[in-house]
Design a protein that fits this description.
Strand order of the largest sheet: 5-9-8-6-10
Number of helices: 8
Helix content: 40-55%
Shape: globular
Structural class: alpha/beta
Distance between the termini: 21 Å
Radius of gyration: 18 Å
């Protein structure tokens, strides 16, 4: 049976993947919780990384020491950088880069095709493109549009490059499937202090204080964010229900054989 690791920063992002598994059991690799179960002819581990490249990289390394895998998939939400993408659009990364083109890591073509096919089979608006990974979120429409213009990226996240680099070090094929949360022309409300960076969990008391301080504007912003989140969540659930329902063992087996020949 092939082994797949799926990594996501936030609890709800992880749930989109492990809800498609059977016979799920829970555990931890150091500080990183995981859910492991079966899907078609695959064994899948879903790991919650927390927010940011370093946490994501550390989570992958902690997991692979206990759960060697053939493929690693980074997932979750992303910011849209081009006008064509709306909340709930699915981005399959063909390439992951940091703030310079020299950092780019290409995703294997067979895996891009596989993930794209599952997205289309799910009935989603799915695109293939360059994905930008940043240390700090792009909060405004101006920042997002500048990133698209200068780096040619379609979407932005905060974890994928760290996982891609760690996966490459271990000879593991890496892919990224992200659902757009905020569109290119939308600005994100400030979430500083509202989410714990290690666990990705919302801090209810801090949310309450923000609403008291900012009044109706905070409520409007959070309501919009919740609506975007529901659309992104629905897209990821649909994708993983399709992809993990099939798990494409022939493609994964080909990748495993290739890695094995490269190691000898």
């Amino acid at each position: 049976m092939q082994r797949v690791t799926i990594l996501a920063a936030l609890p709800w992002e992880c749930a989109c993947a492990f809800s498609a598994l059977q016979e799920v059991r829970k555990g931890r690799s150091g500080p990183f919780p995981w859910w492991e179960g079966s899907a078609a002819r695959c064994i899948v581990r879903v790991v919650r990384t927390g927010i940011g490249m370093q946490r994501a990289s550390d989570a992958f390394r902690a997991s692979i020491a206990e759960f060697p895998c053939d493929v690693a998939i980074n997932t979750g939400c992303a910011g849209g950088l081009i006008p064509a993408l709306e909340p709930g659009s699915l981005i399959i990364a063909g390439e992951i880069l940091g703030t310079s083109a020299e950092s780019a890591i290409a995703v294997p073509g067979w895996l891009v095709e596989e993930l794209h096919g599952a997205g289309r089979a799910s009935g989603l608006d799915v695109r293939i493109g360059r994905e930008l990974c940043v240390a700090e979120p792009l909060m405004t429409a101006t920042e997002k549009q500048r990133a698209a213009r200068e780096l040619g990226a379609m979407a932005v996240d905060m974890e994928s490059l760290g996982i891609a680099q760690a996966a490459r070090e271990h000879g593991v094929s890496f892919g990224s499937v992200r659902a757009v949360l905020d569109a290119a022309d939308s600005s994100l409300p400030s979430s500083e202090g509202l989410v714990h960076p290690d666990s990705g969990r919302v801090r209810p008391w801090n949310v309450f204080k923000k609403m008291v301080k900012d009044g109706s504007s905070a409520w409007t912003e959070l309501k919009a964010l919740h609506s975007w989140k529901r659309r992104a969540e629905a897209a990821l659930q649909a994708f993983f229900a399709t992809w993990l329902g099939e798990c494409r063992p022939s493609a994964l087996a080909s990748a495993t054989a290739l890695h094995g020949s490269n190691r000898r």
